[in-house]
Amino acid sequence: MTTPLTLTPGRRSDGTAVLAAVGEIDMSNTHELAVAIDSTTGPLVLDLSGDEYLDSAGLSVLFSRAGRIELVASPLLDPVLAISGLTDLIARSATGRGAGGDAAGPGR
Q1: Which of 34, 18, 29, 86 is nearest to 52 (CA)?
Q2: Residue 108 counted as domain residue
Q3: What does the buried/exposed string (b/e) look like for 77-103 if buried means 16 or more CB atoms within 10 Å of the residue's CB?
């Protein structure tokens, strides 16, 4: 069974792609996450502020795309991002939908 995850693409006012992920990221839905990330070109703001869980399969997707991702995440995910070392590789933005409210993304 696939864990619920909603992926919503958008754009910041500067044109940078934004992908908001809401739910849980685990091995049952990482393929969808990878496809959504890979369907964008250039830099990507990945907004995980609505994500409640991130397992090693999700981390693997992020590690393999670390060179083009700017991450927005809630404090809930801070321990797993820090322990995994991902925070050393990926730029972080302030927590909040659309990377600090600069998004022209979902519903805007």
Answers
A1: 29
A2: no
A3: beebbeebebbeebeebebebbbeebb
Which two structure tokens, joined as six digits, stand for 60? 């693997």
Q: What is the pLDDT of residues 52-86, one digit of tens each?
A: 999 999 999 999 999 999 999 999 999 999 999 99
pTM, entire model: 0.84
Non-local (6+) Cβ contacts of 45 within 8 A are: 12, 16, 17, 18, 19, 69, 70, 71, 72, 93, 98, 99, 103
Residue 12's domain spans which residues? Answer: 5-101
Residue type, 2: T
Provide the token pair at 90: 């990926």
47 falls within a domain: yes
